[in-house]
Amino acid sequence: MADDDTNRTLTLPDGRQLGYARYGCAEGYPVVYFHGLPGSRYECRLLQDAAGALGVRILAPERPGYGLSTRQPGRRLSQWPQDITALADSLDIETFSVVGVSAGGPCALACAHALPRRVAGVAVVCGLGPLNQAPLRRSMSWTARFAFYLAEAAPGALRALYGLPLNALARLTPAAALRAFALSLGGADRKVLLQPKVLKLLSANLQEAFRQGAHGALQDVAIYRHPWGFEAKDIAVPVHFWHGNADRIVPPLHSQYLHDRLPGSRLSLVPGEGHFSLPVRHATAILETLLAEAGSAAPSPAAGSAPHLSPFSAPPR
Description:
Blueprint (H helix, E strand, L loop, with lengths): L7 E4 L5 E8 L4 E6 L13 H7 L1 E6 L18 H11 L5 E6 L3 H10 L4 E7 L8 H5 L3 H12 L1 H18 L1 H12 L1 H7 L2 H14 L5 H10 L14 E6 L8 H8 L5 E5 L6 H5 L1 H12 L23
Helix pairs in contact: 5-6, 5-10, 6-7, 6-9, 6-10, 7-8, 7-9
């Protein structure tokens, strides 16, 4: 997985390095993918086949502290669109669409809010809602709630109880950790996570997420515990929320909450799908929707190109 297209870096205006990968068609319509928590540029390889079949170019940048991206002390969610602007400018890309998966969802919405003339459309997949809202925190598992509580009340304890153990698991036994996680989730997530190809990919993703230790993940937890700095209602870009109704990591209430506060947005609740199975099984539909919103004439798949991944037609609410 470590080739020229997956080990790219950009020097940002402040001197930091932004790590990113490129998947799909080199000259295709540009889509920027934002990974989960924890995550890395490798995570987006889950969309590789669908992107290639649809003629889409996907750029997968890493947030500060993950993979190849330099740490950024005091980072705020509102600063992320600046990094994405620099990436797009460096590649002579004027307009693009964005996909945010899980904890990448707030990043996608931040870009839509800050860059309405450049972001043509947004897909938020199993996205995290604003966790300063108590009902959304309460909807999550007790382990997640406790982590977000510690991020504010006792950052040192968060590092000791979560950061250090996760860092060790990611570095030493990522596949075993993911297998145990899959068994605890059950359902569609278990079936997808235990597929050899997916397990291998996400094991590499987990290792790369902790290349610099747990700093990036712990910083994300702290950032998402606080208000985002903008309101969903002020986003003027087309947004489509996708969520599995069997998601046990980020409950569907998070997408429903944002959808209710964003006029004109669309929400697709997908029966039986979980947090990992949805983006894997419905990658084609997600990208097709973005292409339609962007008004892009996608190239026809070439003969012998990679097959689509389980298309799903998503109705508007």
